[in-house]
Amino acid sequence: KTPVALLISGRGSNATALIEACKAENFPARVCIVISNNPEAPGLEVARQAGLRTQVVDHRPFGKNREAHEQALHACLTEAGAELICLAGYMRLLTPWLTSTWAGRMLNIHPSLLPSFPGLHTHERALEAGVRLHGCTVHIVTEGMDEGPVLGQAAVPVLPGDTADALAARVLKQEHRLYPAVVKHFLDKTAPACQGGEALLVG
Ligand code: GAR
Fold first, then answer.
1. Matching HAMAP family, A to Z (predicted)?
2. Above pLDDT 90, what percent of the chain?
3. Residue 110 annotated in active site
4. CB-side exposure of 105: number of CA atoms within 13 Å?
């Protein structure tokens, strides 16, 4: 199994979905460490409960020196033997140094159908734009924010009367299906290219 590091900043529900998926014998990854920039991230406790190694690499002591923070992060990643990074609600912009160091080995999940709605507040913006389909994307991380090659997407309808919270919950459910499916496909090229129904397309 490929050792995978999960990077989180908060709740950690996508990390939880990946941790669960990794329990299956035929899943090609194992979680070698869960790292958070936020010492209060609830997802850290989930990881600890699962018996996983956790580490806080707080960005605050580094002030404006993003690269120094990332060097500390990178030291933890290599020390834990990570071969793949899955950003799972990691809410920090990354410098070109980290993205190039991990080029092709860092994935991210984003709560929109990229290239629509990169950045924050995706559900509010989808509602404002009046789109009828919304969803989530897993992509390879490159230098540009939310810009790398798309590996998989899951779509959900926008329903009449939707609030941002209702839409976020509908998308999140799909995030939890999509991320493990994409990681499996990414690491294990024998996985089927399309899984779990017509709304979830991987590969
Ligand atoms: C998820 O919806 C994820 O797609 C999003 O943050 C949430 C984290 O939830 N990520 C981004 O917006 C990245 N720019 P989680 O901590 O429960 O997985």
1. PurN
2. 92
3. yes
4. 16
